[in-house]
Amino acid sequence: MRMRLAIPSLLLIALATGAAYAHAVLDHATPVAGSTVATAPREIALTFTQNLEPAFSTVQVTDANGARVDQGKPQISGNTMRIGLKPLTPGPYQVHWHALSVDTHKTEGNFSFTVGGS
Amino acid sequence: MNDPLIYVRAVHFAAAIAAAGAIFFSVFIAGPAFCKSGAGARWPITLRTQLAQIAWIGLLVAAVSGAAWFVLVAQSMSDSTFADLFSEGALWTVLLQTGFGRAWLVRLILACLLAATLALPFRLRGEKPLAVDAVTVVLAGGLVGTLAFAGHAVGGRGIEGTIHPAADVAHLIAAAAWVGMLLPLALLLAAAAHEVASFDAAHAATRRFSNFGLVSVGVLLLTGLINALYLAGSVPALAETDYGRLLLIKVALFFVMVAIAVVNRQVWTPRLVQDASAGRDALSRLRRNAAIEAGLGAIIIVVVAVLGVTPPPALHPQAVPETQHHSH
């Protein structure tokens, strides 16, 4: 009886310090959210906490006027999503992403970045 | 609680577990116990029929509820209406291009194969009983275990991506074995109640079931903790989130079931072969306890159905200054 309790007890202790990701939350992006970059990026890359379903995950990048500046289809592999960008002029841009995790749950979010003038 | 997916999930879990349980019981418990029943006893044949009926009805209900589950999730994943699902081909995209859809395709194949094995003519079955039994058990276990790929166990990165689903598959099969075999056990005990000569068989069956239950409980504890580690993530989350509180209810019910099982094993099962009157009394108590445990198991199934649509606490530090939310 004592042996059978040992392992569960150890795991319970581990519970106190464990961290768990459950849905595809944005982990980090390039360019970094909220940052200003000197040169216009040719693509953006988003990394999530869970693997995505390519068939139902999308991302859009728009300029200050709301016009789409992304081009091509999103490239999705594992937990990263990248999309090419048209040549960007200096200014603020909005990224809006929709992620479908392989556990069938959807998340969405947005962030902005700025392309600095020279 | 308004989400129809909860009810569909609960029905599907119950049906799959009932079908698998009847099959496991028939192969692992009832068969060996029948050797001990008195010659000419009719009740083993009646029980066999009842188990086959449970397996078939369970499979049928699982098929219908499984289809409904798939449609509901496909609708949510593709953000379309029911009509669009079919007219715009989103159903096929989900079925063939997503992990969930492909898992469901595998489950459909498993269900069809299981139905074919169950329908095997008695003559063919009689020639290679061991092989047929083995195939049925594996298919039933597969049908239940693949439910892991429809829940929160998938999607993790790194080693979690392997360990979590593996633990969940084991968790599901162990749960099906224990909870699913409770109703068949109650039926066996009811059938054996009429003949004192069958108390030996009832004792053998109850002992075997208890041993299976012991292994099951061990597996459930270990895999349950692994799952909780990955999904609840911390002790505070257990008290502070809906998910955590539901998990605590599930664990509490589980321990009540274990307590009843211990009493069954230590007190009532030995009395089955003590003497006729003690045996009769023990039999009815065991039957009642099995029914109570089955009821608790059913409640756990409903809790699990709700857990599946409840966001597990994500303890992810906000790495990006942005707005984001969980839309389903």
Which structural traits does this protein have?
heterodimer, A: 118 residues, mainly beta, Immunoglobulin-like, 1 helix, B: 328 residues, mainly alpha, 13 helices, globular
Order of helices and strands of chain B: HHHHHHHHHHHHHE
Structural shape of chain A: elongated
Number of domains of chain A: 1
Order the strands across the largest sheet of chain A as they lie in space. Answer: 1-3-6-5
Terminal CA distance of chain A: 71 Å
CATH topology of chain A: Immunoglobulin-like
Mean pLDDT across residues of chain A = 84
Report on the structure:
The complex is a heterodimer of chains A (118) and B (328). With 118 residues, chain A is mainly beta. Chain A has one domain (22-115): Immunoglobulin-like (Sandwich), CATH 2.60.40.1220. Chain A is 12% helix and 44% strand. Chain A has one helix at residues 2-15, and strands at 26-30, 36-37, 43-48, 58-62, 70-77, 80-85, 91-100, 106-115. The longest helix of chain A has 14 residues, at 2-15. Chain A is elongated, with a radius of gyration of 19 Å. The two termini of chain B are 14 Å apart. Helices cover 78% and strands 1% of the residues of chain B. Chain B has helices at residues 4-34, 43-78, 82-87, 90-97, 99-118, 122-127, 129-145, 160-180, 182-192, 199-231, 235-240, 242-271, 276-307, and one strand spanning 323-326. In chain B, helix 2 (43-78) runs antiparallel to helix 9, helix 7 crosses helix 8 and helix 9 runs antiparallel to helix 10 (199-231). Chain B has 328 residues and is an all-alpha fold. Classes of the chains: A mainly beta (118), B mainly alpha (328). Chains A and B meet through helix 1, strand 1 and strand 8 of A and helix 2, helix 4, helix 10 and strand 1 of B. Strand 8 of chain A pairs antiparallel with strand 1 of chain B.
